[in-house]
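Dear colleagues,

As part of the handover before I leave the project, I'm documenting each prediction I ran so the next person doesn't have to rerun anything. This entry is a single chain, and its sequence is reproduced below.
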Amino acid sequence: MLMQEFKNQMPDRNVTCMLTQMTVDPNDPAFKDPTKPIGPIYEKQEACDLAEKYHWTIKPDGQHFRRVVPSPQPTGIIEHEAITSLIEQGHLVICTGGGGIPVTRRDGKLVGVEAVIDKDMSLHS
């Protein structure tokens, strides 16, 4: 919707929307104490069963329980060169949506990380 509205308001402007991978340090302290709630709420027994089955961290959320994941500090944007190039060409670039997709490098390859990037923190990468 954001991209559509920009295009509607600026029909002659190039507007580009891209998925953005955010690098994180696997040694970030956030991985030791996950705090970001995701997904539905559960009753205690169901939460415990799911935590055991999927190796999730579960924490109380009011009277219920939720899965929590780390929210590490992003260290960079994989697509930064593409973003810079598009901006230099006059594009309005929409990126780091929702904070971006958390990844780390393992054996020279990008690997997804079960975490959430705080959308406000992606601005500092």
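Residues 44-54 form the longest helix (11 residues). The beta strands are 15-17, 21-24, 36-42, 57-61, 64-69, 74-77, 92-94, 101-106, 109-112.

All the best with the project,
I.
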